[in-house]
Design brief:
InterPro entries: Aromatic_deC, PyrdxlP-dep_de-COase, PyrdxlP-dep_Trfase, PyrdxlP-dep_Trfase_major, PyrdxlP-dep_Trfase_small, Pyridoxal-P_BS. The protein is an alpha/beta fold and 531 residues long. It contains 14 helices and 13 strands. Helices cover 38% and strands 13% of the residues. The strands form three sheets. The protein has a seven-stranded mixed β-sheet, with helices on both faces. A four-stranded antiparallel β-sheet has the order 10-11-13-12. The chain has a two-stranded antiparallel sheet with strand order 1-2. Helix 5 packs across helix 6. The structure holds pyridoxal-5'-phosphate. Pyridoxal-5'-phosphate binds next to helix 5.
């Protein structure tokens, strides 16, 4: 990217009057141009901050909300991708915690001057990297309420509402997605909120492993085989490592020659037959709706038939794209979900629910409980012993769990289904607009078919040299990201280095997409001129 000047790596900050000042982003330099809130700070009645006191809470929490609201007012003035160097914070903060209390004002001033420069702004409208991690007002309010009530809901008795609300909102969401009734809590199945898709995948893998080992004996662990595609999220590999699946028994079927990087049922069938013939035991398939690299959709119906025939646990990972399936016109991507044993979608990606909130549904909850339940004396209680209730501690790795259903409930109630559907549609429309802009410029190439709100594309070099093309696109990514104006990420498909542009931040509007494309064009012209 030699010679390229897109924008100096300056931090352009706005103050409360809406004025903007450019402050060089050097670790240790105060961002003096910025000013969050203007009232004097006190902890209330001139006292030290108490562990808990209703009036102090009210005062300080109001200040914090003002601080956060000001952050959102100014969010476009920060470089989207933090431009600090590794270790920057160690140089700015003292070596030990303060012995005497400090004021909230002093702390928030340091948040402005020292922490925010090291923040990558996931909620910026100019954030297009990885997949989105939506925050919203409703999600924030739910998160606040959850933090405020501050319970630990591992068993029903520890807060009956936490367990019961979780069951209800996951039934609501299952109905929105038109999941089969087997996934509802009224029968032998049900949903639970996990921290992440990775945890969801791990717990179902453990349930599937133990189910088969109960049948064939624990000694067979080394023979168990797991299937996915080379596009399956890396959390499958991690889950296999933790679950003790032999590293050589993870089959990630190649998708390069397949339909848009989707897992081919033929290739899965062949692999299974081959493994059975070798004396191995196929037991788990993870299919993906909306792969991480290019949002490919594995053909659930055909894959499900194969897993059923071979008694293989069928998990469907729709971490990102699951959200789109609340719209009737995208629901067909879940066709075949009837065949699945478990299904997962991250409400914290594209469903306006602040991180973390990963919804997992399972058809036979007893399999999970058999793998993960414990029953120590100190947790025994009448409701649990009487088997009248769900104890979510038996559905997950940790014991403790937060009241996360509050935020999903708030999102569903404060926005309503119609608004959530238009939210998704709007992002997909914006992604389509971006795709059209790319397609009109002959210097660029759209690399994979856009299915949801991810556009995969790359800049083409004049000389058609693939190695050079990869370098060119790496340089283009560096150029746009170091400009601070947008943040995108990349992937490699069929050996080609590709730019990923995902629309999904709640604040993104058409003008942001247009500006982002202009940045790509300018940066590309500069790169091509200097090449
Ligand atoms: C993001 C993603 C994951 C991992 O999500 P976590 O919640 O961070 O574990 C898994 N699978 C797919 C398809 C994803 O897009």
């Amino acid at each position: 990217m030699a010679g390229l000047t897109v924008l100096p790596p300056n931090l352009v900050t706005g103050n409360m009057d809406g004025n903007s000042t450019a402050v060089p982003l050097t670790p240790g330099t105060d961002m003096t141009g910025i000013c969050f809130g203007d009232q004097l700070w006190e902890n209330g009645n001139g006292l030290n901050l108490m562990a808990m006191d209703a009036e102090q809470l009210r005062k300080n929490a109001h200040k914090m909300v003002d601080f956060i609201a000001d952050y959102y007012k100014n969010i476009e003035s920060f470089p989207v991708l933090s431009q600090v160097e590794p270790g920057y914070l160690q140089k700015l903060l003292p070596d030990s915690a303060p012995v005497q209390p400090e004021s909230l004002q002093a702390v928030l001033q340091e948040v402005e001057t020292k922490i925010l420069p090291g923040v990558t702004h996931w909620q910026s409208p100019n954030y297009y990297a990885y997949f989105p991690s939506n925050g919203s007002i409703a999600g924030f309010l739910g998160e606040m309420l959850s933090a405020g009530i501050s319970i630990v809901g591992f068993s029903w008795i520890t807060s009956p509402a936490a367990t019961e609300l979780e069951m209800i909102v996951l039934d609501w969401l299952a109905n929105l997605l038109k999941l089969p009734n087997d996934f509802l809590s009224k029968g032998p199945g049900g949903g639970a909120i996990q921290g992440t898709a990775s945890e969801a995948l791990l717990v179902v893998l453990l349930a599937a492993r133990d189910r088969i080992l109960r049948e064939i004996g624990k000694d067979a662990l080394g023979k168990l085989v797991v299937y996915g595609s080379d596009q399956t999220h890396s959390s499958l590999q991690k889950a296999c490592q933790i679950a003790g699946v032999h590293p050589e028994n993870l089959r990630l079927q190649r998708t390069e020659s397949c339909n848009e990087y989707a897992l081919s049922p033929e290739s899965l069938g062949d692999a299974i037959s081959h493994d059975i013939a070798s004396g191995l035991i196929p037991f788990f398939l993870c299919a993906t709706v909306g792969t991480t690299s290019s949002t490919a959709v594995d053909p659930l119906l055909a894959l499900g038939k194969i897993t059923k025939r071979n008694q293989i646990w069928f998990h469907v990972d729709a971490a990102y794209a699951g959200s789109a399936c609340i719209c009737p016109e995208y629901r067909h991507h879940l066709n075949g979900i009837e065949e699945a044993d478990s299904f997962n979608m991250n409400c914290h990606k594209w469903f306006l629910t602040n991180f973390d909130c990963s919804a997992l549904w399972i058809k036979d909850r007893n399999t999970l409980i058999q793998s993960l339940s414990t029953n120590p004396e100190y947790l025994k209680n009448k409701a649990s012993q009487g088997r009248k209730v769900i104890d979510y501690k038996d559905w997950q790795i940790p014991l403790g769990r937060r009241f996360r259903s509050l935020k999903l409930w708030m999102v569903l109630r404060l926005y309503g289904v119609e608004n959530l559907q238009s939210y998704i549609r709007n992002h997909i429309k914006l992604a389509q607009q971006f795709e059209d802009l790319v397609a009109q410029d002959t210097r660029f190439e759209i690399v994979a078919t856009r299915t949801f709100s991810l556009v995969c594309f790359r800049l083409l070099p004049a000389n058609k040299n693939e190695e050079y093309a990869n370098k060119l696109n790496r340089d283009l990514l560096d150029a746009v990201n170091s400009s601070g104006q947008i943040f995108i990420s990349h992937t490699v498909l069929s050996g080609k280095y590709i730019l990923r542009f995902v629309v999904g931040a709640p604040l993104t509007e058409e003008r942001h997409i247009v500006a982002a494309w202009k940045l790509f064009q300018e940066a590309s012209s500069s790169l091509l001129e200097n090449s």
